[in-house]
Amino acid sequence: MSILTLTMNPAIDICTRVDRVRPVDKMRCDPPRIDPGGGGINVARTVLALGATATAVFPAGGYPGRRLEQLVLAAGVSMRPVPIAEPTRESVSVTDKTSGEQFRFVLPGPTLSDAEQQAVLGAVDQAAESAQVVVASGSLPPGVPDDFYRTLAERMAIRGVPLVLDTSGAALRHVHSGVFLLKPSVRELGELFGRRLTGSDEQIAAARELISDRVAHIVVVSLGAGGALAVTSDTQEFFPAIPVPVCSGIGAGDAMVGGIAVGMVRGMSLGDAVRLGIAAATAALGAPGSSPGAPERIAELFEQLEDDHYVTDDAEQAPSALPG
Prior knowledge:
By secondary structure, the chain is an alpha/beta fold. The chain contains ten helices and 14 strands. It has a ten-stranded mixed β-sheet, with helices on both faces. It has a four-stranded mixed β-sheet with strand order 3-2-6-7. Strand 6 (89-96) and strand 7 form a beta hairpin. Helix 1 packs across helix 8 (252-265). It is globular and about 55 Å long.
């Protein structure tokens, strides 16, 4: 096994389309697309699309939990589901075909008991013995304390397994150390610091503050249509986005994390790993629902990105995506 993913609040993603979203009226929907969802599961699907191996750990309960397991298996992802008492959540997205806007309805998820939380951590501990990288992605469900990812980071640091973390809000604020690569959006980074980060100088300074405080070794800030920024203690590198028509934005950020994780286990430089992540995210934008982009499309976009960036510090340093 190369990459282990953790999804604390997975979901069954139901995506459909209507002619126009209106209040009160019944809206006749297109046949739905149903995908296994949640940050880490989406990451694992991208890892698989890139030809690498991944195992997904996630809590699953009730009939929806069994359905989620079936969907993960159908996607070809190895899994270690952890049984819980309450049913797994479902999420619904509806695209207005007239405007092209997508409306997402996200339920809070099941409440996990202390014993169930410990069972999840135990499953991660066991699976991490053969993992090169652990990726934790997504929100925390009800009942899980805000410092859960902090506990996970400490446990992975003791094991010497690099942790990639993609979360936000209180779950991110409670992480104080132990993360190898942190992947916030620019909005999430601004929320963490309590202010809007309007320019690259402010974004770099905020990311470097997290690094100097030993929260993370590397911070990769996703800028949406503005591209991405990778920051280490002594380098910063900007990567432009590739404008493409958007079919669905669900899971694009997770696809970016999946691409970066694959780059890490393949020994790529940090810059190439981030480019692979951007290529995977861009390909996902053109795919339906939360499905990953096609491998050939990711490869095409990665080639396009190879020379289309600039470095604001010494490029010859070429930091590795994994610790040496």
